[in-house]
Amino acid sequence: MKFIKKVSSFFTGSGERNGDRSLSISVRCGRCGEVIRTRVDLSNDLAAEFGEGEREAAYFCRKVLIGKQGCYVPVEVLLKFDARRSLVEKQISGGKFLEG
Q1: CB 29: neighbour CB atoms within 10 A?
Q2: What is the band of 60 on the pLDDT scale with cuts at 50, 70, 90?
Q3: Number of neighbours of residue 77 by Cβ within 10 angstroms
């Protein structure tokens, strides 16, 4: 029975759904005012920025968001993270960030 559980856990994962390994973001479109929500998977969505000596010094993520209300104006979000994948800087064009 243990063998079957090990094999099934291999395919289904550990049961965690990126509990604290994701970052939720809410923005408001600058043109129509629609609230757009997205999620950044800190394990898979980040690109590495390399420093001296070919070591990963930091990470970044760029997302282009488009709402569902027919406005179709892109809202571009650029997020920068430190080596521990903690958010250190965020920029936006075409909208504004919503807190919470």
Answers
A1: 21
A2: very high
A3: 21
Q: How far apart are the first and last CA of the chain?
A: 45
Cβ atoms within 10 A of the Cβ of 91, count?
A: 11
Q: Where are the domains of the chain?
A: 17-98
**Full 3-state SS string of the chain:** CHHHHHHHHHHHCCCCCCCCCEEEEEEEECCCCCEEEEEEECCCCCEEEECHHHCEEEEEEEEEECCCCCCCCCEEEEEEECCCCCEEEEEEECEEEECC
Q: What is the mean pLDDT of residues 84-93?
A: 95
